Write the structure tokens for this entry.
Amino acid sequence: MRRSKKQRTCWSRYAFRWSGAGSPATQVPEMRIIAGQLGPGITESALGITILAADHHNRGAVFFARVRAMEDVYGYLIDLGRLLGYVLAHEIEHLLLNSKAHSPEGIMIANFAEPEVLRASQRRLRFTPSDREIFSRK
Ligand SMILES: [Zn+2]
């Protein structure tokens, strides 16, 4: 998908927070999109993080500035909204499966790079059959 003229949404005005009830007692997973600065200890190339808690109050976050930086590189292939959606799908899968496992290909690949962006732009980036099998067992 090529765009003749790059159109940008001013995402920096938005603060995203998508979560469940937020109470550990409910054991509802929580997902945030972080638009601000990241603290130390976050892998330089990570687009998101999932924290699996012993009490199953799993939490995840997507690093919006890094997703936008990736869109700056690959914006000729994919728009920011779709790219963000794929990163969210990846982190949500970790939350729901209570697992940090990755697949050698597809949405659950550990490192999202140009081949994945290209497949995503063509709507061909999917969960693998083994991802779906694990999900169906949960
Ligand atoms: Zn992951």
User: Anything to note?
Assistant: The chain has a mean pLDDT of 80. The chain has four helices and four strands. Residues 96 and 124 are 22 Å apart (CA to CA). The radius of gyration is 15 Å.
